[in-house]
Amino acid sequence: MDKLKDPFEILITTDNHMGYREKDPQVGMDSFHAFEECLEIANEKNVDFVLLGGDLFHEQRPSSKAYLTAS
After folding, report:
1. Domain extents for the chain?
2. Is the pLDDT of residue 70 over 90?
3. pLDDT of residue 3
4. pLDDT: is 8 or 13 the higher one?
């Protein structure tokens, strides 16, 4: 079998927990900033796709603030 000549690249991120302690003035935005950094790395590396391994949000039903900040 020939080796792939054009492999694809994946960025895998898991357990982002966006919205974790969102009401805390010191760490409330940390999870959003960390996820933004993941997406920036994906863009810089020109990956073919991003795989979210689970727990994108901290709560099963994220707050409106968490949902809107993430989008």
Report:
1. 10-70
2. no
3. 66
4. 13
Residues 53/12, Cβ–Cβ less than 8 Å:
yes
DSSP one-letter string for the chain: -PPPSS---EEEE----BTTTTT-TTTTTHHHHHHHHHHHHHHHTT-SEEEE-S-SBSSSS--HHHHHHH-
Q: Tens digits of per-residue pLDDT, 18-55? A: 999 999 999 999 999 999 999 999 999 999 999 999 89
Query: How many CB atoms are located within 10 Å of the residue 37 CB?
Result: 11
Residue written as token pair 């020109």: 46
Neighbour tally for 49: CB within 10 Å = 10
Residue 30 carries which side chain, given as an amino acid letter?
D
Residue type, 51: L
